[in-house]
Design goal:
Radius of gyration: 16 Å
Order of helices and strands: EHEHEHEHHEEEHEHEHEH
CATH class: Alpha Beta
Number of domains: 1
CATH topology: Rossmann fold
Number of helices: 9
Largest sheet: 8 strands, mixed
Number of strands: 10
Helix content: 25-40%
Strand order of the largest sheet: 3-2-1-4-5-8-9-10
Shape: globular
CATH superfamily: NAD(P)-binding Rossmann-like Domain
Distance between the termini: 13 Å
Structural class: alpha/beta
Length: 232
């Protein structure tokens, strides 16, 4: 069993510039808001720079003075120290394939959940040839250090600055221990949030799929449920 490092043993994640590709969607914008509130420079990426800048301007209208700006995806990926992939599932592979050079050598954090939705039956996990979205990212980005994380975070809570603490754990998965340690530390930059090592990347499928269960829980109980790992 891999020993969980305490927050004091994790690397210092402060000062990192964070690029969020797909940052115009709710999940990406929510993460951008939280990391910018934590003092990180954040670059929202989109296929169109003006759309990305509009999303950044929206966040600054919510919290004045945030260190966030917009850029076209390639520019955001190039300028960032660490890149979060938050694009819709249908655009996942083509987005990554188009950005191989810009993402080479970088830690790439995939938080995409391959889900389908059927009327009357709710959300369900989609099959992925590579096993999971994160494994697909690793197969495409062979020169990047791919980590899976931030799958079970409520976009609604992220986007509400009146919510001072995100009371949840983030499962962090990957094959590169230095990279997973840094992403755990990055999760801990958001108040109330904790990064927990969840295994190697081949375990990402069940983490991504569990999002469908959380959606069902939240619909039934009208909640914004997250995940807490006990006894760690």
């Amino acid at each position: 069993m891999t020993e969980q490092k305490s927050p004091h043993d994790l690397p210092d994640a402060s000062g990192l510039t964070i690029g969020i590709l797909g940052g115009t969607g709710d999940q990406g914008k929510g993460l951008a808001l939280r990391f910018a509130m934590a003092g990180h420079e954040v670059i929202i990426g989109s296929r169109k720079a003006d759309r990305a800048q509009e999303a950044a301007d929206d966040l600054r209208s919510v919290v004045a003075g945030l260190p966030v700006r917009g850029a076209e995806n390639a520019a955001a990926a190039t300028a960032a120290d660490i890149v979060i992939i938050a694009v819709p599932w249908e655009g996942h592979r083509p987005t990554l394939e188009s950005l191989r050079p810009e993402l080479a050598g970088k830690i790439v954090v995939d938080c995409v959940n391959p889900l389908g939705f059927e009327k009357g039956k709710g959300a369900f996990a989609l099959p992925v040839e590579e096993g999971s979205a994160a494994e697909q990212a690793a197969a495409v980005l062979t020169d990047s250090r791919v980590v899976a994380a931030f799958h079970h975070v409520s976009a609604k809570l992220l986007l509400d600055p009146s919510v001072e603490s995100m009371d949840l754990d983030v499962l962090v998965l990957g094959n590169d221990r230095e990279a997973t340690d840094l992403v755990q530390a990055l999760a801990g930059r958001i108040p109330g949030m904790r990064g927990i090592y969840g295994g190697r990347l081949h375990n990402a499928h069940q983490v991504e799929a569990f999002t469908a269960n959380l959606i069902s829980i939240n619909r039934r109980y009208k909640a914004h449920a997250g995940l807490r790992v006990t006894d760690v």
